[in-house]
Amino acid sequence: MKRYSSDLLAILDNQRNADMPVRDCAYDVQLIDAHDIVPNSKNFYGIREIEELATRIRLSGHITPLEVVASDDEPGKYTLISGERRRAAMLYRLEQGEIDKAVIPCIIREDLGNRGFLTAEEIETINIICANDYRDKTPFEKLDEVQKLKPIARKCWEQESDRPENFRMYFAKSFLGISPSSLQRITVLEKLVPEAREAFEDNLISYTALSELAYKPESEQREYLAGLKTGENAGTVAEVQGKDKPSEAEPQEEPCAEEVMPEPVADCQGETEELPQVTDSPKMPLTASKSVDMAKLEVQARQWVKEGLERLLEEAEGEMEKAKAKEDTARAALWDLRRAAAALAIEAMS
């Protein structure tokens, strides 16, 4: 998914009061004790791989400054805007005896007060999401972002004097900077039962399979997720779609190739003639020059195919939603099958 910052911050900048004083964009970096930095209760991102991050900080001797804002409730304390993992990594190093004091470089942001028609809480939410723009996010973190930004986007949309597009189009393209079908791939996770998030976090099911599961009724979702915990289900796309179950009638074994003997061909006079012998070997693909890295080319080829499949998946999801909006059940079912086929192909290449 495209990063939010460029589109989102541009909209916010346009919504500022015209008479708001211009501030210098340069910030002073100050050293602050990690114990004086209070985690932000609005930060919904997971804290992962702390030990690995602590090791990288120790080896490089560098830590990107945290972003904080002075606390209104506790003098001398600061509320964290960005840097939850970095703070945790420094505290981990302190616990391990690697450092004597967890002092961290910080950028102290200005007070996040009301800005135009947006409240201080909405401004804080936007700052948290934009400050975490660099992260590798889970699908559910992306969903949380969308859910938290949606009411803010609606307020911005309602303030627009000219609205050429509907809200969904505005939210996807103008506010988030992604396509409506990409937004659909995120929001489809809203249809999942709560147990699905836990299964994904426990690495019991892939994201693509999870997206397929979201289209099933809640009772079927819970039944399938229960099978994941017992080991009965494997969490693959094909399995969720029900395409890897063996059929009731087992196909008969075909004879091995060496057991199949060519039969003589009889002509109309009752005589037989032998089949012509094949002497030419099948043509092989062109051999690349030894200077060509075939492994690299193969990776590039697979990536090319995968990107094409992802485009087809996006198109199928978009067409399916259009058909559903028009209540064209047959066309929606057709595009749903195409979507499932593309998702299965992508999963097979992962």
Describe the structure.
The chain has 350 residues and is α/β, with parallel strands linked by helices. It is 49% helix and 8% strand. The chain has helices spanning 5-15, 50-60, 84-95, 120-131, 139-159, 167-176, 180-187, 194-201, 207-213, 218-230, 237-241, 294-325, 329-349, and strands at 29-33, 37-38, 66-70, 78-82, 103-109, 265-266, 272-273. The strands form 2 sheets. A 5-stranded mixed β-sheet has the order 1-5-3-4-2. α2 (50-60) packs across α3 (84-95), α4 crosses α5 (139-159) and α7 crosses α12 (294-325). The radius of gyration is 29 Å and the shape is globular.
Descriptors for this entry?
350 residues, alpha/beta, five-stranded mixed beta sheet, two-stranded antiparallel sheet, globular
Overview in brief:
The protein has helices at residues 5-15, 50-60, 84-95, 120-131, 139-159, 167-176, 180-187, 194-201, 207-213, 218-230, 237-241, 294-325, 329-349, and strands spanning 29-33, 37-38, 66-70, 78-82, 103-109, 265-266, 272-273. It is α/β, with parallel strands linked by helices and 350 residues long. The protein is globular and about 65 Å long.
